[in-house]
């Protein structure tokens, strides 16, 4: 037997695959990577279903906005309309006929994953339709609309600085004599 051949182990049998070479399995994808791949494939399928079909390289922010609106039909978040008696109530006491929409946070996360996937698939950051200003404006409008409809005020993050300043004024640091 030559030096580069190994003896067959008695445990090896005919059930072995046709290849004698070990092929490592790729590491399983993280939850984020799986979602990103699924989102990317879903957007690609959405574009293919357009009439006429649109290639990923030809997609723009208008296609992205249309995709986000299309996804609303699968949403699970009740967004009360201005005429609804429950408009502005975070926990309405009874059901109503207002539409279900995608939650703002879900759309925001989706756009983040699609922005990353676009660049991973060879697109440049400058031409990324998911990073377009129109998308940010749309997401801000959705966030504000949903907050008003559910009576949830979104506060600016600067509030923490104000609270710290107020706390420091109420309890000034002790000075040594």
UniProtKB/TrEMBL annotation:
It holds the Pfam family ALOG_dom. Keywords: Developmental protein, DNA-binding, Nucleus, Transcription, Transcription regulation. It comes from the Eukaryota. One of its GO terms (biological process) is mRNA transcription. Residues 1-11 have a biased composition (Basic and acidic residues). It is found in: Nucleus. One of its GO terms (molecular function) is DNA binding. Residues 153-164 have a biased composition (Basic residues). The keyword Transcription regulation applies. InterPro entries: ALOG (IPR040222), ALOG_dom (IPR006936). Residues 1-35, 153-177 are annotated as: Disordered. The keyword Transcription applies. Residues 31-158 form the ALOG domain. GO terms for cellular component: nucleus. Residues 12-22 have a biased composition (Polar residues). Belongs to the plant homeotic and developmental regulators ALOG protein family. This is Protein LIGHT-DEPENDENT SHORT HYPOCOTYLS 10-like. The gene is LOC105116039.
